[in-house]
Design a protein that fits this description.
By secondary structure, the protein is α+β, with helices and mostly antiparallel strands. It has three helices and five strands, in the order ββαβαββα.
């Protein structure tokens, strides 16, 4: 596992709540702990990045940001591939407010 430094980051919406990070676990400082996203280092190709994301995970659409913006706000994008999703990553370190504002 390594950090994504550059490229598009995609968050799927699995419910009708339009905030992409409404029910995520946070630490004692209110910062995200390991929220699932998809990304490929250096890529902005949405179709390629989405490969492996289960349809249920984006049943209500997707929201995008960039690794650069996440890092600027103090966050981290860590590659965390799983057998069914080679582009799976985890983001952490952002407040819920920042995470929701970054993903449009």
């Amino acid at each position: 596992m390594g950090d994504i430094q550059k490229g598009t980051v995609i968050r799927g919406l699995k419910n009708a709540d339009l905030k992409p990070f409404s029910k995520e676990e946070v630490d004692e400082h209110g910062r995200l702990l390991d929220a699932s996203v998809n990304s490929i280092e250096g890529s902005n190709n949405i179709t390629a990045i989405m490969v492996g994301m289960a349809p249920a995970m984006h049943a209500y659409g997707t929201r995008t940001s960039t690794a650069e913006k996440i890092i600027q706000k103090g966050g981290r994008v860590l590659t965390a591939p799983i057998p069914s999703n080679p582009n799976h990553c985890l983001i952490s370190g952002l407040t819920l407010k920042d995470a929701n504002n970054l993903f449009s």
